Amino acid sequence: MPAPSSKKTYCPSCGVEVDTYVILESGNEVTHCASCGLTLTDHREPPPIKTLDYIIYAEDSDLLRNLITRLLVDKKIGREVIPCKNGAEFISNATRRLREKQPVNLGILDVEMPIINGIQAAVSLREIEKGLSAKKKIPLLFFTVRKCDDEFKKFLKSFEPSSYVNKGASDSPEELANRAYRVISKLLSSV
After folding, report:
1. Which residue has the higher pLDDT, 183 or 1?
2. What's the total number of domains in the chain?
3. Phi and psi of 129, rounded to 5°?
4. 92 near 63, Cβ under 8 Å?
5. How far apart are CA 138 and CA 188, in angstroms?
6. Is the peptide bond before 114 cis (omega within 30 degrees of 0)?
7. Domain co-membership, 36 together with 102
């Protein structure tokens, strides 16, 4: 990886000012977050996301799960958002949809949950997709209070298409939803 630059830039995934690095991609300089790798070159508002038909969202906090679910619908990110209390409910809903050949446009997983956490749910989901010969992988967005370190970057790479949002860096659910919107926009543009 190239050496970080001295210029700090806001990263919506990390939720803070971060060091950056630049990579030459297709003849263009592209700036990335040195912490999580998110592309940061375009600082304009992201283009509107085409409303997704079906999102499954797993979060063990009732308050946050209800607020984020409502915000995803209100901001027209998802037409239908299925809230789940844990990874087991997430896997159950995703498996049912995949078996019925119904789309799941995005999965959102809290990393720390009881019963089945977000990491275990992601592992299970990718195996289920493989077993059911899914045509494409469900893009995954992970919510966590952890900062993105090298181990977590490897984890994200192994579950591509995937990204993360450090939910601990947000002061309100509204701010978290706005940051998530930006990251989802980048995640879906790479699919």
Report:
1. 183
2. 2
3. -55, -45
4. no
5. 10
6. no
7. no
pTM beyond cutoff 0.90: no
For 170, the token pair is 């947000």
pLDDT digits (tens, 9 = 90+) for 62-111: 988 998 898 889 888 899 999 999 999 999 999 999 999 998 999 999 99
Q: Is the peptide bond before 103 cis (omega within 30 degrees of 0)?
A: no
Domain that holds residue 18: 1-44
Residue 162 scores a pLDDT above 80? yes
Helix, strand, or coil (residue 71): helix
Cα 107 to Cα 29, 150, 166: the distances in Å are 31, 23, 16
Higher pLDDT, 166 or 5: 166
- Mean pLDDT, all residues of the chain: 87
The residue with tokens 């926009």 is 185
Task: Identify whether residues 132 and 73 lie together within a single domain.
Answer: yes
One domain, residues 23 and 84: no
| 67 plus 158 within the same structural domain | yes
CATH of the domain at 137: 3.40.50.2300
59 and 19 together in one domain: no
Give, in degrees to the nearest 5, the angle at Cα 67 between 62 and 72. Answer: 125
Q: Are strands 16-25 and 140-144 parallel, antiparallel or unpaired?
A: unpaired
The pLDDT score that the predictor gives to residue 38 is 87
